[in-house]
């Protein structure tokens, strides 16, 4: 997958997270979990863009690691939202799958870069 494709994909993920957070009930639990998910979900794209601007392989590895962590954190917040039954599971499934796929893509990219293979 090309960098521009991933830039677009991570931006679309952020937009999907923004829309989803708006559907979470406006109570104390919803505010806390929604805010955490919103921060992590929008951070994925922003940090991926930063990784693409890295000045060295070491910097790329560090920044892509942050992207991986943020995507995985989205999985965590989505799991909590699902298990707390704040939102129906059907509204979470697609976002969870995308967060999991982004986590896997970033992990593979980090491992590949760490081994010295082309990015």
List keywords for this structure.
single chain, 119 residues, mainly alpha, de novo design (two linked rop proteins)
How are the secondary structure elements laid out?
Elements: H1 3-21, H2 28-52, H3 57-83, H4 89-114
Helix pairs in contact: 1-2, 1-4, 2-3, 3-4
Give a verbal description of the structure:
It is a single chain. With 119 residues, the protein is mainly alpha-helical. It has one domain (3-114): de novo design (two linked rop proteins) (Up-down Bundle), CATH 1.20.1440.60. It contains four helices and no strands.
Count of β-strands: 0
Q: Helices and strands: which structural class?
A: mainly alpha
Oligomerization state: single chain
Enter the CATH topology name.
Answer: de novo design (two linked rop proteins)
**Gyration radius, to the nearest Å?**
15 Å
Count of discrete structural domains: 1
Uncertain runs are none
Counting DSSP H or I runs of 4 or more residues, the number of helices is 4
For the biggest sheet, the summary is: none
Shape: elongated
Question: Secondary-structure element sequence?
Answer: HHHH
Helix fraction bin: over 70%
| CATH superfamily label | 23S rRNA-intervening sequence
| Arithmetic mean of pLDDT | 95
Write the CATH architecture name: Up-down Bundle
Assigned CATH class: Mainly Alpha
Q: Termini, distance in Å?
A: 10 Å
Strand content: under 5%
